[in-house]
Amino acid sequence: MEKAAEALQRFLDLVGEEEDRVLIFLKELWPNIVGSDLARHTNPETLSQGVLTVRVPSEVWKTQLLNVRSKMTRATNRYWNRAIVKEIRFRRDDESIL
User: Fold this and answer.
1) What is the largest CA-CA distance in the chain?
2) How far apart are CA 33 and CA 73, in angstroms?
3) Tell me: the pLDDT tens digits for 19-29?
4) How many CB atoms lie within 10 A of CB 15?
5) For residues 89 and 65, is the Cβ–Cβ distance under 8 A?
6) Within 10 A of 92 (CB to CB), how many other CB atoms are there?
7) What is d(CA 91, CA 61) in angstroms, rounded to the nearest whole number?
8) Contacting residues for 95 by C-beta, under 8 A, at least 6 apart
9) Which long-range contacts (CB under 8 A, 24 or more apart) does 66-72 make?
10) C-alpha to C-alpha distance for 70 and 76, rounded to whole angstroms
C-alpha cells in the first residue's frame, strides 16, 4: 500500500489536483482507503470543489455513515497526504444528484 501512496503522491505533484483525475484514482484506491467491507457498500461518485459524493445502497447506510463521515474524510486525506476532500456527502442509489 505504501508504494501506491508514493506513486499517487508523485502523480499529484505532476498533474496537480485536478478533481476528475483525482476521482479516477480515488475510485480505484477506495478499498485501501476505507477498507474492503465498507468499500463493498459505498462508491465514490463525484468530486467537486472538495466535496466528495459517495453512493450508498440505502437510507440506513446513509444514516450510519453520517456518524463516521469525518473519519472517512480524514482517512481519505491521510491516504493522499493532502487535503483533497473537505466534505463527504452520501447519496442513495435511488437519489439523483442535484
Assistant:
1) 40
2) 10
3) 888 898 899 99
4) 10
5) no
6) 14
7) 10
8) none
9) 66/90, 72/34
10) 10
Percent of the chain exceeding pLDDT 90 equals: 62
Instruction: Report pLDDT digits (tens) over 38-72.
Output: 999 999 999 999 999 999 999 999 999 999 999 99
> Which residue is it, cell 437519489?
95
Q: From start to end of the chain, where are the E strands?
A: 43-48, 51-56, 87-92
How many residues does the structure list for the chain? 98
Distance CA 25, CA 30 (A): 8
pLDDT at residue 8 above 90?
no
Q: Is the dihedral of CA 19, 21, 23, 26 positive or negative?
A: negative
Residue with cell 465514490: 44
**Residue 92 β-bridge partners:** 56
pLDDT at residue 73 tops 90: yes
Q: Going edge to edge, which strands form the sheet with 87-92?
A: 43-48, 51-56, 87-92
6: cell is: 508514493
